[in-house]
Amino acid sequence: MLTLSAIKADVGGIGGHTQPSSGMMDAARQRLEEARDDGLLIDFDLTHTGDDLCLLMTHRHGSGAAQVHDFAWSVFEDATSIAQGEGLYGAGQDLLADAPSGNVRGAGPGAAEITFDETDPDRTAEPFLVFTADKCGPGAFNFPFWTVFTSPLYCAGLMLPKMRKGFKFVVVDMEHAGADRVIELNAPEEHVELAVLLRDENRFGVKEIWSRNFPGQQVASTSTDRLHTIAGEYKGKDDPVAIVRSQNIFPAPEELVSPFTTAHYVAGDARGSHHMPLMPVSINSAVAGPYCLPIVACVAYSLNEEGKLSERVDIFGNQVWDNTRRKAQEKAEEIRKQGFVGPAMLPVQELEYSAFRTSLAELEDRFRVVKGSTEAERAQKEKEPAPASD
Ligand code: MG
Ligand code: MG
Q1: Residues 37-79 pLDDT 10s
Q2: Ligand 2 center to residue 131 CA distance, Å?
Q3: DSSP string spanning 219-235?
């Protein structure tokens, strides 16, 4: 069995929430090379998307392996030390626990992992995509995953015999702290029930997707931890990572990326408090847009039977995405014209995890109930005898 682990965290940025420094990247790369030489990992790639470092690792320890998660945590600690030494902003911001006990989930970093049998005859090759998003939550993948895995409108491949039975979604309640609270729903017959949940990207996220034609074959994994359910307050955005296997018994890369041409609105952005469109960008891009426009990168890899990674293809870095980038920027400028009002900002329940709740609480204290403003009070007043006149 082979495991793909993509573990991602923000442990510091240059001049704000832009990108990690080359010193942080160098430190992380050195640790990854050592782990490959020591045999912990078979192979790795190191990227960043905005201010998040992403460690893509191949190994034979299975999903959720303590030694891999502990290793990733220590890489983020080393990168944090560099960030602190360089005076970078938000150094170590996603390392919320002192040290996790063998699993970074619930400690701050996001992890997407898939384990599979690399000798399975149903998969003669193992192409896959890694999506890394910054300045948005895990629910940012709800729209593209629902459309691709339930609707032939976006994925004509669903009509082929190997995908006709559809896919099983594992949806997680991201507002539930502690143990995972999940529901399994089968597409296509429960695609409407899926929509009922996935429309709320702040609460529900797609954790896993599995083939129904080929039970036991997992096609997608997404990090679904939310930092506020760990820390109880806003600690930066939950910037997700997803791994999606492609081709053959699964949708093709060109189908998997098609919904991203929408530049759909997602929750996130500046202070994690706004709605803005998701812009596809090159891997290793900085966040530099007004109001921290949320960004997503997509990288394609192949993998051989030993678990060695190919070089990468920067899918969203291609010029064919220029038109979507322009559209995303225009949509962003349009919604920001209405400032803080209505759907431009997140619902107040989401903002309550941030310092916004303090501002709101101060105003709550100044509200007063106006006497005589209810129907009952007015009726009572009419019954009272009029004051005697002289
Ligand atoms: Mg940051
Ligand atoms: Mg980030």
Answers
A1: 999 999 999 999 999 999 999 999 999 999 999 999 999 999 9
A2: 14
A3: EEEE----HHHHHSS--
